[in-house]
Amino acid sequence: MIPLLQSLVDAVSAGAIYALAALGIGLVFGIMRLANLAHGEIITGSAYTLIFLWEFSWPLALIASAVVGVVIALAMNFAVFHWLRAQSPATLLIASFGLSILFQRLYDAAFGTNVRTAPVGSGLSQSIAMGGIRINILSVITIVLGVVLLIAVHLFLTRTSIGLQVKAASSDFRMARILGVRSGFVIAITFAISGLLAAAVAFALTTQSGAVGPTFGVQATLFGLVGAVLGGLSKLSGAVVGGFAVGVVLSLFTSWLPPWANDFRTALVYVFVIIALVVAPNGLLAGRSKKDRT
Amino acid sequence: MKFLSKTGMVAVSAASLLMLTGCVSSNATATDPSAAAGDPIIFGVVMAETGFMSPFDTPALNTMKMTVADINAAGGIDGSPIELKIIDTGSDLKRYAPAAEEVVAAGAKVVIVTCDYDVASPAALVAESNSLLNIAPCIGDPIYGPQGGLKLGFSMGNGTPGESSIMAEFAFDKGWKNAVFLTDTSIKYTQNQCAIAQKRFTQLGGTVVGTYNYVQGDKIAETVSQISAGTAPDVIFNCGYAAGGAQVAKDIRDGGIRTPIVSGFGMDGTYWLAAVPTLADYYVVTYSSVAGDDPDPRVNALSAAYATAYGAAPSVGSFITGTSTIDAIIAAHKAAGSWDGPALAKAFLAFSNTDLVVGPTTFTNDLHINVERPQRVLQVIDGKLVFQEERAPQKVVFVD
């Protein structure tokens, strides 16, 4: 039987990835009320960049991956979401779904259906044994990266002028505009940061798999989004905790469910999320006030 | 029945190489009207050049184009060129039946379908309802045929029972007695693959020390922990297909498990190997070796011609099934003397160890697929798939 401590290590590792994905999704939702399903395609774009450039120069690959993430996120904003700002969240959601499909087809056309592969961070994906427990180096890095990025985003939002504008807009977009916050600029900054966060997720996932295909970022985004909703999309910390919780629960189900039930582990995660949302409809850590976007 | 000698096939392929480039650049047809004066004979092709099935369909489709170009260059069939009317389904299940109806309406004499039964069956059923022969180049499930209600349906592929039996026998003969089975449950092919391999492995006296399921896209760190915590296996059967199967291989090695791994055709191809640069002790049972080291010189010649025509060697060993599909159809037509579906099917049922580049081919009333062909065991060495041995199943077992 799998040791409990090993199971917890695996669970924390899985949770860290989805927490990172949820952070990027939650940030954009806070400003735009947009549950961006196309966040996965930002991840995919950054991941392809890592794959293509890694063996040429890994520092260049990391930098280019971040740049690509930011560029795709900004392009999505300026090409689509900028024009839909006054629309309902449902309209934005559908638009992001369309963008997601469009980008998947573009990746398919540009890079083919077969996965593209490269040994991205291959040394980091190895495991080390400590006291009978196997610890994946990448998992440690992902957890640290998640914590660092969360703190960095928090400091940005609370200690910088631009960040305060973003935070103000996130709290009450209409009032912030009346008080002179440049809405377009704030939204662009938010998308740019979400692009950077997507690049971080891309690095973790690409190091894990070494292979990228057109739908590479979909699963992480889906679980990240579900996690963000679970934790409460209106609060960044809620989104992160929710994303982490979804990863942990999925991992624990995989480890501990009996074989006859293990094939239903993903469905059971959604059952868990549904029950949690019935108990706390706005999310486990959501604020009380309902926020509107104009 | 022997209709193309080995040397003849190589000669025809070599002679027509120069014209291949022009032909393969056209998606819609592979016809050379100047080569024959009669009306084109249309072969409807309902396969995936894009989407998740394309890694398996495209190599076979490309060799179909090459073979048709060769035949047309040599005068076609009784003076008429073959035209491949190709519809790319994008691997979308909903598009198979309409695509089949379209090629039937265009006058297709036979319908050639994609390499997975679950996906191909809507197109095959359209062909059946129009009394047309329908051929799958590389479906592995024996249900493609009478078991699946397809009286006129045949697969040129290697049946999963034979492939999976070989996987088990190869592992057991290596002296590996304790096995873990990892099954991708997303498609029937991989489910049957592990079920049959497990059955054959235990028949031989092997012990199953663990069975785990996953689906495409899963990371299996938890399963790796469970394997590590249990009885150490001598071999792991990874019944999957890339890219999900590659993720599994990577997770196993990243988790520190160095046990030999055996897979089937689903993990054929080198396109995923760069993801696991230090991968070793990994074995794949498949149709052929594309690297020029196959024991059959016809395979090596076809692989070289493919590389010339398309700029790279085929991605998977099943590329040879495309050529064999066309060759088999023409042989059946010659025997039947018509394009009538039931007549062609009767000619197919007369195949008995017929020598095709895909291997000796036999069809029976019950089984429209080959399960006893010899296959190749390839090993991953330094990021390449290297031929190890040719092996036929000692005993073929079927899923319960």
TrEMBL record, chain A:
MF terms in GO: transmembrane transporter activity
Domain of life of the organism encoding this protein: Bacteria
CDD domains on file: TM_PBP1_LivH_like
GO biological process terms held by the UniProt record: amino acid transport
Pfam families with a match to the protein in the record: BPD_transp_2
Family: Belongs to the binding-protein-dependent transport system permease family. LivHM subfamily.
Name assigned to this protein: Branched-chain amino acid transport system permease protein
Organism per entry: Alpinimonas psychrophila
UniProtKB/TrEMBL annotation, chain B:
Alphabetical UniProt keywords: Signal
Signal peptide span: 1-30
InterPro entries per record: BCAA_transport, Leu-bd, Peripla_BP_I
Cross-referenced Pfam families: Peripla_BP_6 (PF13458)
Record has Transferase as a keyword: no
Residue ranges occupied by any Leucine-binding protein domain in the UniProt entry: 41-383
Domain of life: Bacteria
Record PANTHER family: LEUCINE-SPECIFIC-BINDING PROTEIN (PTHR30483), PERIPLASMIC BINDING PROTEIN OF ABC TRANSPORTER FOR NATURAL AMINO ACIDS (PTHR30483:SF6)
Family under the similarity heading: Belongs to the leucine-binding protein family.
Name the record gives this protein: Branched-chain amino acid transport system substrate-binding protein
Species, as recorded: Alpinimonas psychrophila
High-level lineage: Bacteria, Bacillati, Actinomycetota, Actinomycetes, Micrococcales
